[in-house]
Amino acid sequence: MQNNNHLIPKVVIAALVAGLLGGGITYGGISMFQNSGMDTSVPTGSNDGGTTGTSNIKVNVQNQSEKAYKAVKDSVVSVINLKHAQTNENPFASMFGDSDNNSSKNSGELEANSEGSGVIYKKSGDAAYIVTNNHVVAGASALQILLSNGKQLEAKLVGRDSVTDLAVLKINGSQIKDIASFGNSDNINVGETSLAIGSPLGSAYASSLTQGIISAKKREVQLTGSNGQQTGNTASVIQTDTAINPGNSGGPLINLAGQVIGINSMKLSSDGQGTSVEGIGFAIPSNEVTKIINELVKNGKIERPALGIRYINLSNISVSQQKSVLKLPSSVENGVVVFDVTKNGPAANSGLKKYDVITELAGKKITSQDQIRSILYDQKVGSSIQVQYYREGHLNTGNIKLSENTSQLKVNQ
Question: What are the start and end residues of every segment in region (Disordered) (predicted)?
Answer without folding.
Answer: 91-112
